[in-house]
């Protein structure tokens, strides 16, 4: 088993899981019914994607860990998701901006990952890309509606974007795992993803009448299991039942 | 015969002949009013019903269960959407209906005012609450009003899926550890009586029943449906190894049905009146979501308006 490949896959799985977990908090609380359904739909896609990836990670590891072992019985320091995924939901502007920045990343990432030399990852990417397409369309449209809607919505989405941009450099910071996987033709080229992502962000921001904010600081460390203070609470909630009654079937 | 009397007569004849009444057809005001009340109550129940189960989405014990629960709660929102749309065909807007819910003028099913305290509640809701909903709703697929009947066909299909998922969840708990069995039993103890109340007051006290029967909006009495629910639930409980919390529950050879104990109607009327264990919390959550979403809805409208103006300008 390649431990680099295991790391590579579990990172993708954790990103999907933690983003899905956060987005699912909106279920039943959306700004109107159609949007409530749409957010729940995206959350469902993300949980489904996490299940495929974590199951595959468990197979690669070869120690018999299932998707649930990986989701429910790892501690905060063992999760490998980016910080942007774990930030609290905030208001609808914050959720929209987060989803847009992540959807644009995922769209270009999974598009490239379809050509992975690893057949399982390539198959997962092909399935995932279809979802990423409509996630990106949906969040881009909302960026434009909020940016070019009312004064209030423009102000709220500007604030959300300003708050989120410092979390985006982490998405493109390649480490030795990314480099090893790229060399083997399994992983994607993060530099080229960054270029496409920047174009996508600039295009939508311009349509949404949004300025791209200057970043004065950055946040990251998710790859090393160094998370924000929010992560412990997210896991405490998500894992509570499994941790209280370990080793049972649910 | 006056014109209205003649129209009423034709209307009732169409109903008696099992013809569907469609939005543009003539209908008595009282029929329209009854339908708006019933369909909107039903829509409100779906969206308020998202809350008790939604309470467990972030804590579902496996990823498979999380996905099932998310999909289920999403389905409920979807049912709300079809039903608000069906109500709109009767000339009332969704906004008006939601205002009625928030002001307390419109009711929703009393069952959603009970709390979901443990994971087993998600199974008990699927098995008992969805089963009761299905029994109430299957006859509505043949309701005389076309848009309502058609919405119900789709809803019933999804509800029966939910019921099986809930039963399967409880089955897993009942085949599990002693703690899991106790969790399942406790949930059924708490949900059984509120589920029986879902069929509404007993026939003698039901205010809207007779007229609704004549209009074929309703086809079976509350008590008949409740009996059917008890009869189908008892063997299902036995199969799970769960005891239903009613010492008077026993098979009656003569009637061919199960006898069961007296429902605490005082509790039912208290919950309907707004004094159930979660009425306040449910309404607060709905109102908060609506108020917090106001700026989003305004932004979407403002943007659509700008787009329209731009298109007109470009065309000019």
3D structure, described in words:
The complex is a heterodimer of chains A (250) and B (316). In chain A, helix 1 (3-23) packs antiparallel against helix 2. Chain A has one domain: Ferritin (Up-down Bundle). The longest helix of chain A is centred in the N-terminal third of the chain and has 29 residues, at 33-61. Chain A is an all-alpha fold. Chain A has helices at 3-23, 33-61, 67-72, 83-86, 92-113, 119-147, 151-164, 176-183, 190-207, 230-244. Chain A is built from ten helices and no strands. The mean pLDDT of chain A is 97. By secondary structure, chain B is mostly helical. Chain B is built from twelve helices and two strands, in the order αααααααααββααα. Chain B has helices spanning 3-16, 29-54, 63-88, 94-103, 120-137, 146-174, 178-197, 209-214, 222-240, 265-275, 279-292, 294-315, and strands at residues 250-252, 257-259. Chain B has a two-stranded antiparallel ribbon. In chain B, strand 1 (250-252) and strand 2 form a beta hairpin. In chain B, helix 5 (120-137) runs parallel beside helix 7 (178-197). The interface between A and B is large, with 48 and 47 residues.
Give me the secondary-structure topology.
The complex is a heterodimer of chains A (250) and B (316).
Chain A: H1 3-23, H2 33-61, H3 67-72, H4 83-86, H5 92-113, H6 119-147, H7 151-164, H8 176-183, H9 190-207, H10 230-244
Chain B: H1 3-16, H2 29-54, H3 63-88, H4 94-103, H5 120-137, H6 146-174, H7 178-197, H8 209-214, H9 222-240, E1 250-252, E2 257-259, H10 265-275, H11 279-292, H12 294-315
Helix pairs in contact in B: 2-3, 2-11, 3-6, 5-6, 5-7, 5-9
């Amino acid at each position: 088993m390649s431990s680099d490949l295991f790391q590579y896959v579990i990172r993708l799985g954790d990103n999907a899981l933690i983003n899905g977990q956060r987005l699912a908090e909106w279920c039943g609380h959306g700004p109107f019914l159609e949007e409530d359904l749409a957010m729940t739909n995206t959350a469902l896609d993300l949980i489904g994607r996490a299940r495929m990836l974590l199951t595959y990670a468990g197979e690669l590891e070869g120690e018999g860990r299932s998707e649930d072992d990986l989701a429910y019985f790892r501690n905060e320091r063992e999760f490998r998701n980016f910080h942007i995924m774990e930030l609290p939901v905030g208001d609808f502007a914050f959720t929209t901006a987060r989803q847009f920045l992540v959807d644009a990343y995922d769209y270009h990432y999974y598009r490239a990952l379809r050509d992975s030399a690893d057949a399982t990852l390539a198959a997962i990417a092909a399935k995932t890309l279809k979802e990423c397409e409509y996630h990106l369309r949906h969040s881009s449209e909302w960026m434009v509606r909020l940016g070019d809607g009312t004064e209030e919505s423009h102000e709220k989405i500007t604030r959300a974007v300003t708050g989120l941009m410092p979390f985006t450099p982490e998405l493109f910071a390649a480490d030795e795992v990314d480099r090893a996987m790229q060399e083997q033709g399994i992983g994607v080229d993060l530099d080229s993803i960054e270029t496409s992502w920047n174009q996508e962000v600039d295009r939508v921001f311009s349509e949404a009448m949004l300025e791209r904010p200057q970043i004065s600081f950055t946040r990251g460390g998710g790859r090393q299991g160094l998370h924000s203070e929010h992560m412990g609470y997210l896991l405490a909630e998500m894992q509570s039942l499994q941790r209280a009654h370990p080793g049972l079937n649910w | 015969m006056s014109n209205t009397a003649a129209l009423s007569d034709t209307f009732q004849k169409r109903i008696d002949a099992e013809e569907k009444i469609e939005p543009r057809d003539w209908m008595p005001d009282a029929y329209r009013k009854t339908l708006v009340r019933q369909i909107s109550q039903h829509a409100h129940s779906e969206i308020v019903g998202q809350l008790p189960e939604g309470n467990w989405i972030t804590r579902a014990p496996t990823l498979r269960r999380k996905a099932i629960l998310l999909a289920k709660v999403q389905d409920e929102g979807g049912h709300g959407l079809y039903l608000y749309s069906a109500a709109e065909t009767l000339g009332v807007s969704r906004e008006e209906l939601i205002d009625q819910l928030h002001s307390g003028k419109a009711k929703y099913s009393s069952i959603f005012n009970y709390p979901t305290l443990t994971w087993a509640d998600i199974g008990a809701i699927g098995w008992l609450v969805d089963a009761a909903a299905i029994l109430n709703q299957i006859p509505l697929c043949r309701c005389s009003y076309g848009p309502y009947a058609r919405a119900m066909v789709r809803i019933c299909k999804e509800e029966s899926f939910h019921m099986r998922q809930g039963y399967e969840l409880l089955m897993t708990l009942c085949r599990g550890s002693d703690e899991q069995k106790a969790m399942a039993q406790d949930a059924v103890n708490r949900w059984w009586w509120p589920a029986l109340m879902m069929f509404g007051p007993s026939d003698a006290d039901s205010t809207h029943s007779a007229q609704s029967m004549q209009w074929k909006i309703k086809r079976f009495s509350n008590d008949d449906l409740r009996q059917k629910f008890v009869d189908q639930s008892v063997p299902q409980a036995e199969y799970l190894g769960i005891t239903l919390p009613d010492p008077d529950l026993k098979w009656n050879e003569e009637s061919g049905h199960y006898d069961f104990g007296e429902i605490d109607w005082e509790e039912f009327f208290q919950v309907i009146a707004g004094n159930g264990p979660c009425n306040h919390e449910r309404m607060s959550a709905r109102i908060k979501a609506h108020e917090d979403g106001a700026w989003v809805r305004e932004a979407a409208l403002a943007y659509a308006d700008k787009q329209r103006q731009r298109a007109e300008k470009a065309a000019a």
